[in-house]
Design brief:
The chain is α/β, with parallel strands linked by helices. The chain folds into 2 domains: 159 residues, Rossmann fold; 111 residues, Hypothetical Protein, Haloacid Dehalogenase-like Hydrolase, Chain: A, domain 2, CATH 3.30.1240. It is built from 10 helices and 13 strands. The strands form 2 sheets. An 8-stranded mixed sheet has the order 5-4-3-2-1-11-12-13, sandwiched between helices. Strand 6 and strand 7 form a beta hairpin. Helix 2 runs parallel beside helix 10 and helix 4 runs antiparallel to helix 6. The protein is globular and about 60 Å long. The protein starts with a strand and ends with a helix.
Length: 279
């Protein structure tokens, strides 16, 4: 195994939004074997980095579904932003429905509905505390048009709704635009990037930098925004908490994120590697 790409939410982190110790130890074991471990997430860099730092892990990070690639030292290796025309199309579709969406840019994340988003989507119902995933939702902007974003790079729009009909309608409208890539990491959201941006495309850019062959690599994920990774690597792993439709697309199904499924998958293939050496 040359590289292991791991999704974060619903995969690396558990339901308490933290990385299980078993996952931490398995990543360190893989790194000790000379395997590159890459975190590939829809989150912004700061949010993903904070979670890894708390676990004592150091990995390259593909963030915002492939819009940005960072190395272990926090250097930007690659940026892919939306053109202003593409952004205008996506923004118009989202605003036609409601204002519960987040625009991720080179200057942070912006929304008109910060309080609503925290209350409805990003608060732990048991503790009442905001989830770490929103660590970068630190700015509130009363934007009126795309001109407000002319001086920054726009990477991604995350549209949220608890109304299934709204989600389906927004997704359908967005998918009519060939310049957009529309995915999802949860049933209550739609993730919007430029058409050339995906986790899989980011791995294609990162592989030659790390000097690895993706055919000898593994990707682990739980959502449909992970499919592009699955299509690029030699071995795809679905989490036990992933939908059956996604599991059927993968070569291996591991345990759930609350059962340290990442560790289960990594140790399985480290054992396979060891057996091959012995033979």
């Amino acid at each position: 195994m040359a590289l292991i790409a791991i999704d974060m939410d619903g995969t690396l982190v558990n339901g308490k939004n933290s990385i299980p110790q078993e996952n931490i130890e398995s990543i360190r074991a893989a790194q000790k074997e000379g395997i590159h471990v890459v975190i590939s997430t829809g989150r912004m860099y700061e949010s993903a980095k904070e979670t890894l730092d708390e676990a004592g892990l150091s990995c390259p990070i593909v963030c915002l579904n492939g819009s940005q690639i960072y190395d272990k030292e926090a250097n930007v290796l690659h940026n892919d932003s939306m053109s202003k025309d593409v952004f205008a199309k996506a923004l118009a579709i989202c605003e036609a429905e409601n204002k519960t969406f987040i625009i991720s840019t080179s200057e942070g994340s912006f929304t008109k509905c910060r309080d609503t988003l925290y209350e409805e989507f990003f608060t732990d119902k048991q503790t009442g505390k905001p989830q770490k995933v929103t660590a970068t939702l630190r700015k509130v902007r009363n934007y009126t048009s795309i001109e407000d974003f002319n001086n920054m790079d726009v990477y991604k729009i995350l549209f949220l709704s608890k109304n299934e009909e709204v989600i389906n309608r927004v997704r359908l409208n967005l998918m009519q635009e060939e310049s957009l890539l529309v995915t999802s990491s949860h049933s209550n959201n739609v993730e919007i990037n430029a058409a050339n941006v995906s986790k899989g495309a980011a791995l294609l850019k990162l592989a030659p930098i790390l000097g690895v062959d993706l055919k000898e690599s593994m990707a682990i994920g739980d959502s449909f925004n992970d499919v592009s990774m699955f299509n690029r690597v030699g071995f795809s792993v679905a989490m036990g908490n992933a939908k059956e439709e996604l599991q059927r697309q993968c070569a291996f199904v591991t345990k759930t994120n609350d059962e340290a499924g990442v560790a289960h998958a990594i140790y399985h293939f480290l054992d396979q590697k060891q057996k091959m050496k012995q033979n």
